[in-house]
């Protein structure tokens, strides 16, 4: 089968630029309006995109008052989106540290069932202390413990999804049998963190299991993705870095005995699109002028793991602040490495770094014409850097509409993106097979 570009629409309130909501043409007033997300999803589906994706942090992680994002619960919201769409995938983030396996397995099986096979789970371990405090914890567990818990969590969830055989639901009125009890099994899991009997109280969903996505780029995150994930969301600033990550994930998955073609690498890209490159750059500059220094510094502190309050905005950011974070071998926190690499490569002032990160929190921000954006996507796709992209418009609806109306047709004309859906499930869009029951 010919390799197919994957394109997800990453939903994020008024847009991915942190100051998007301040622009008069943005949709800032609609971020809690379900019809706003339904409209975006329908636009994405009309363009034959693979999925819409919602991130999540269950807390006000940045309390400066300059922005509120990720407020609505993503699984609930995507349930509402499923009611007005028929093909587009529905990917929601949910935490293995702050959830219990039975509840989350049931929620995603429900989303997969009511959407007729379009659910995906973006697996996160969550590092924000603010979220921990909302769940009765004083702080998040250590990085290594969170990943140990995540491995066991996925093991339990998979067993629960597979606790029903594919033909277990009978609804046999003549014999009075609703389901075949011989094909519904307790999982009887006992591990380091969980003791769960099962089975799930819901028959196996249309995809068997939701598509599993992972978004961590640390060393632990890469290993986790290579073992469990069907797709990995990642952030890169350069083609070379993306190629290195792509090769590493494919190699790791092969080391675990998996087919490397069955794990898709999907970097984020935040495109400013205009009729000319200069116009696109001018709009990026316009949004950067609307940013809040207080908010930007708080965001930078989260990504870099340290405060920069001692620097003036026109001071050069000291590379020494990041230690070995730019070293792939010592990659403990993926986004910290992205920031370190920007500082090493560009030697920005603090103001320049804040603006550099304002567009998409360390994801690849580009400004250009539709053809220039399509050229970048095509080059990364054909150069062993990406299987597709999470499209992160700096502002909705303007830049999403331009991507859908002007960039996607170019990619279709080049023969690397579909003009029609070949199936109705997220697995079919991603070129993945339906998994067999494992218990």
Summarize the structure.
The chain has 439 residues and is of the alpha/beta class.
Q: Can you tell me about this structure?
A:
The protein has 439 residues and is of the alpha/beta class. Helices cover 38% and strands 14% of the residues. The protein has 14 helices and 13 strands. It has helices at 34-46, 74-82, 101-114, 129-133, 143-161, 219-228, 239-255, 277-289, 293-304, 334-346, 350-358, 370-382, 398-413, 426-430, and strands spanning 6-11, 51-54, 89-95, 119-124, 169-172, 177-179, 189-190, 195-196, 211-214, 231-234, 264-273, 364-368, 388-391. It has an eight-stranded parallel beta barrel, surrounded by eight helices. Helix 5 runs parallel beside helix 6. The radius of gyration is 22 Å and the shape is globular.
């Amino acid at each position: 089968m010919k390799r197919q570009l994957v394109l997800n629409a990453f939903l994020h309130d008024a847009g991915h630029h942190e100051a998007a909501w301040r622009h008069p043409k943005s949709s800032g007033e609609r971020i809690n309006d379900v019809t706003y997300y339904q409209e975006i999803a329908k636009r994405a589906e009309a363009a034959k995109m693979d999925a819409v994706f919602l991130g999540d942090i269950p807390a006000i992680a940045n309390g400066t008052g300059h922005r509120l994002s990720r407020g609505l619960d993503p699984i609930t919201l995507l349930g509402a989106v499923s009611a007005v769409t028929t093909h587009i995938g529905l990917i929601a983030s949910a935490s293995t540290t702050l959830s219990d396996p039975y509840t989350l397995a049931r929620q995603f099986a429900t989303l997969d069932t009511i959407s007729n096979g379009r659910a995906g789970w973006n697996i996160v371990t969550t590092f924000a202390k603010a979220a921990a405090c909302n769940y009765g914890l004083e702080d998040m567990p250590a990085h290594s413990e969170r990943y140990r818990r995540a491995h066991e969590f996925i093991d339990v969830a998979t067993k629960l999804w597979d606790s029903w055989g594919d033909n277990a639901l009978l609804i046999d009125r003549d014999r009075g049998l609703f389901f075949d009890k011989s094909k519904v099994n307790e999982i009887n899991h006992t591990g380091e963190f969980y003791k769960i009997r099962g089975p799930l109280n819901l028959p196996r969903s249309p995809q068997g299991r939701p598509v599993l996505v992972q978004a961590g780029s640390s060393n632990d995150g890469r290993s986790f993705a290579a073992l469990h994930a069907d797709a990995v969301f990642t952030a890169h600033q350069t083609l070379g870095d993306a190629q290195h990550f792509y090769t590493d994930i494919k190699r790791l998955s092969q080391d675990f005995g998996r087919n490397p073609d069955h794990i898709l690498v999907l970097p984020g890209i935040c495109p400013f699109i205009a009729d000319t490159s200069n116009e696109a750059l001018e709009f990026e500059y316009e949004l950067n002028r609307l940013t809040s220094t207080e908010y930007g510094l708080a965001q930078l502190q989260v990504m870099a793991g340290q405060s920069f309050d001692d620097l003036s905005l026109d001071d050069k950011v000291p590379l020494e602040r990041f230690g070995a974070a730019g070293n792939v071998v010592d990659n403990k926190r993926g986004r910290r490495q992205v920031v370190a690499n920007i500082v090493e490569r560009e030697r920005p002032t603090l103001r320049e770094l804040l603006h550099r990160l304002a567009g998409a929190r360390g994801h690849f921000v580009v400004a250009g014409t539709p053809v220039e954006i399509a050229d970048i996507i095509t080059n990364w796709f054909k150069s062993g850097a990406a299987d597709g992209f999470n499209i992160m418009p700096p502002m909705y609806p303007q830049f999403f509409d331009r991507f859908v109306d002007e960039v996607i047709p170019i990619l279709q004309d080049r023969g690397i993106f579909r003009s029609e859906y070949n199936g109705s499930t997220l697995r079919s869009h991603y070129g993945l097979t339906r998994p067999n029951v494992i218990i």
